[in-house]
């Protein structure tokens, strides 16, 4: 094992550094991991550019990264289900206490939760990282490290589809064909959605959505009227969708989502936009359209692993760029420019494969 723990550390907006930090020692019920694959998320880039997301502000140096997989090197006292050599996917949100949200099975809503790369908690974009063993999930041999790292964004899709009540025969609109829109599409299809419209400004992203199973890619333009967009969706499906998942956070897109959804349907808000957004609330009220929020995910890793192992879901095409850990700044710049879909950093010097 290296003596040095190369890590990607954010000091302040725009100030991203590669630093050598101490190799951590696992405590009770923790494991030390040799990190393998870590995806870059839009939130990582947002912290890098702006130093904050909502109330979460970077006030001290913070290691980035939360879409991750690795190999167990050491287990702390009390760990029974994992041993050195096991390949694992990491769930980045770990409850710190058994509060009412934990007891209700909605631990993602716990105000005191630890979450990788959300200030002040360090993430796992480094060579060596320790994590709660209960939130490390063993990967079957048929699931690669990169697929393991993609379970984190895939979990957003699972949680969003669960919140929307997606089931066999559901018709859907997904607003936005970025990484999160695409995983929502993959999960929706695996859960039995019959027809899915997916909208985006980018023809390139819509082409990938089509490859991944979208029935109707819908290219939109800035300035399109939301109610007009809703009519286009109805024209493509032949009826209004049961469920709309909004992944952009853009005000006009949220408006279109509400106009488009059928009476009694559900709009799931995944994308984060401005604090105050003007929406046609009366339209939602008189149609009895439920508007449901999404905050990360909970209880999704076992389902995601089963989906990947059974080949019901294929996330491999999402990875379009790979960089060694030493080139982290270039990798972040690639993501910032919106090139490709998912940029993956390879943290193990001796194993740069998928």
UniProtKB/TrEMBL annotation:
Pfam families, alphabetized: ADH_N, ADH_zinc_N
GO MF terms, alphabetically ordered: L-iditol 2-dehydrogenase (NAD+) activity; zinc ion binding
Keyword entries, A-Z: Cell projection, Cilium, Flagellum, Metal-binding, NAD, Oxidoreductase, Zinc
GTP-binding is among the record's keywords: no
Residue ranges annotated for the Enoyl reductase (ER) domain, each copy included: 11-345
SMART domains: PKS_ER (SM00829)
GO CC terms of this entry: motile cilium
Keyword Flavoprotein: no
Highest taxon in the source lineage: Eukaryota
Localization (cell): Cell projection, Cilium, Flagellum
SUPFAM superfamilies to which the protein is assigned, alphabetical: GroES-like (SSF50129), NAD(P)-binding Rossmann-fold domains (SSF51735)
Cofactor(s) demanded: Zn(2+)
GO biological process: sorbitol catabolic process
Annotated family: Belongs to the zinc-containing alcohol dehydrogenase family.
Family annotation (PANTHER family): SORBITOL DEHYDROGENASE
Protein name as catalogued: Sorbitol dehydrogenase
Organism the protein comes from: Megalops atlanticus
């Amino acid at each position: 094992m290296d003596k040095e723990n190369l890590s990607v550390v954010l000091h302040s907006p725009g100030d991203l550094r590669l630093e050598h930090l101490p190799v951590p020692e696992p405590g009770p019920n923790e494991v030390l991991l040799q990190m393998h694959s870590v995806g870059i998320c839009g939130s990582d880039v947002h912290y890098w550019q702006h130093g904050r997301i909502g109330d979460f502000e970077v006030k001290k140096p913070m290691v980035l990264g939360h879409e991750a997989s690795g190999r167990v090197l050491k287990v702390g006292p009390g760990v029974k289900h994992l041993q050195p050599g096991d390949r694992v996917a990491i769930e980045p949100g770990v409850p710190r206490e058994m509060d009412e949200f934990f007891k209700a099975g909605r631990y993602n809503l716990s105000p005191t939760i630890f979450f990788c790369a959300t200030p002040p908690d360090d993430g796992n974009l480094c060579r060596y990282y320790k994590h709660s063993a209960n939130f490390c999930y063993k990967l079957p041999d048929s699931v690669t490290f990169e697929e393991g790292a993609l379970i984190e964004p895939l979990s957003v899709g699972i949680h969003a589809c669960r919140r929307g009540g997606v089931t066999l025969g559901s018709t859907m609109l997904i607003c936005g064909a970025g990484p999160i829109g695409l995983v929502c599409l993959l999960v929706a299809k695996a859960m039995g959605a019959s027809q899915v419209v997916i909208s985006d400004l980018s023809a390139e992203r819509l082409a990938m959505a089509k490859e991944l199973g979208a029935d109707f890619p819908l290219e939109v333009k800035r300035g399109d009227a939301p109610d007009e967009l809703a009519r286009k969706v109805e024209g493509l499906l032949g009826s209004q969708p049961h469920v709309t998942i909004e992944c952009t956070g853009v005000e006009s897109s949220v408006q279109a989502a509400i106009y488009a959804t059928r009476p009694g349907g559900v709009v799931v808000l995944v994308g984060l936009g401005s604090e105050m957004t003007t929406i046609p609330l009366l339209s939602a009220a008189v149609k009895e359209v439920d508007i449901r929020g999404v905050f990360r995910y909970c209880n999704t890793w076992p389902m995601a692993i089963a989906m990947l192992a059974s080949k019901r879901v294929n996330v491999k095409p999402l990875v379009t760029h790979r960089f060694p850990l030493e080139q982290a700044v270039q990798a972040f710049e690639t993501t910032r420019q919106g090139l490709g879909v998912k940029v993956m950093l390879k943290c193990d010097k001796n194993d740069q494969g998928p």
